[in-house]
Amino acid sequence: MARKRKTQKQWLQMIRMEGNPCLATRCKPISDPVLEQEIINDMVAVLGYTKTGVGLAANQIGHLHRIIVFKPNKNIPGFFVMINPEIVGRSNELTNRPEGCLSYPGITKNITRHELIEVDFKTERGAMCTSKFHGMNARIVQHEVDHLDGFCLVGAK
Q1: Sheet order of strands, 128-134 included
Q2: Could you give the angle at the alpha carbon of 133 between the alpha carbons of 29 and 140, nearest 5°?
Q3: Which of 69, 105, 123, 135 has a CB 3.0–4.6 Å from the CB of 43, allowing a cystine?
Q4: Catalytic residue (one of 38, 93, 124, 144)
Q5: Which 8-state DSSP code applies to residue 28?
Q6: What is the pTM of this model?
């Protein structure tokens, strides 16, 4: 059955905002490839319509599963998808930089993050993978994994 086409406004309205219980819920691992793809498709559509967003966690659009999508380079089209990501390594080097969040519009906070991380995850094609991320990509992944764990440092009081 074909899905009804959504407008840009309808896609962006899927983003859960401050106070929504989805944002405070720890997401569960996912193993259903059909559901994974449906969620990924929604996430890519939503993130693609944002003007400033660089990453999105599934619970930010109401799916309580461990999936993140991010733009590894704002100047190159395309998205990086991680299913069931787990940060398994962190550098000792920390950086403190401003971060924003699609679920907390208008709020920016300086957040300290690890400069280099190592992450285990499943790819969109089902392969298990371990990758290292540094700099901005490490920051984005840490931010989105925080969301999957039910918290966001940008929105913390």
Answers
A1: 55-57, 67-70, 80-90, 116-122, 128-134
A2: 65
A3: 69
A4: 144
A5: B
A6: 0.93
Query: Which string of DSSP letters, residue by residue, matches 47-116?
Result: HHH-SS--EEEGGGGT--BSEEEE-S-TTS---EEEEEEEEEEE-S-EEEEEE--TTSTT--EEEEEESE
The full length of the chain comes to 157
Which residues are within 8 A (CB) of 39 and not within 5 positions of it... i.e. 6 or more apart? 30, 58, 63, 65, 67
The backbone torsions φ and ψ at residue 138, rounded to the nearest 5 degrees and listed phi first, read -65, -40
144 catalytic per annotation: yes
Q: Which pLDDT tens digits describe the chain residue by residue (157 residues)?
A: 556 688 878 878 889 999 999 999 999 999 999 999 999 999 999 998 898 899 999 999 999 999 999 998 777 778 999 999 999 999 999 999 999 999 999 999 999 999 999 999 999 999 999 999 999 999 999 999 999 999 999 888 6
Q: Which domains does the chain have, with CATH numbers?
A: 8-148 (3.90.45.10)
